[in-house]
Here is the input.
Amino acid sequence: MTTNTAAKILGVHASTIKRHSSNGRLRAMRTDGGHLRIQPAHLADYLHQNHAEHRLRSVGDELARFMDALRAHFQQNDDDLLTEVLFDTLMEGNDHSFHVMVEHLFEIYPEDVLVLGPILLRLLRIIEKRYAASTLTIADEHRITQIIRDTIIRYHFRATDRFVPNGKQAIVGCAERDTHDISALLTRSIFMLRGYTVRYLGADVPNEEFRREQERWGADIVCISRTLPSGPGEDRNLLRSLISSLDRNRPFDIVLGGLWSDWSRSIADRHDGIQVIHTLKELDDLLAV
Here is the structure.
């Protein structure tokens, strides 16, 4: 990795990395062009020898691989190795190391759920695929999913210090039958960081509750997450009352995120007050307008 990447990983100035590579504290090599390059394992050794108070010292055997994953993240914009390291750490039961790694990411990106969110969602996709392929037990699926959920909640409450209300309100929750609310929890944080007061309904929300809560609070946006594939019948039951309320009450927007049916997408195409989004970035761009 480059000296700049090593500095980002440890949270120090690049000049510190260069100085310690020159005096021998940090093992490094030079390219044919004279540029310093550092192996992740050597950076891990340097951390243990020179940064006694650094949180990453407690990560354990996964430290060098985690540093290599951060190298790929910073230098190649590739998070595959990062999600693999996080998953393997949880599968090995090293929950403490996982939380230390995530805390370190919080420090690197204190205000950017658009970086942390996709990483955690990629981790969730690994879990879903392994479980569907029967290579992950239901106990591990529940355990790891709950750890991810707790992590997102922890991030959300860290971010509340930066909440600046804009006077608008949002209703956020998961469609009926959706029992995992990780995407909705990340959505809640995006709304909050954009200044919305969020009324969070959680997972598996009965269809009629979205309309009732919108009318109760006079919300400006109703955002519904759907992580399980749906059919036209399910979506029609959910959206019909919201659309009728949208037509007769003060204007509000309906934002649909996730796996919605073609019927819902066609309704959104024909109705100015309804939008279907696919990523956290799309939602953030929408709220920024």
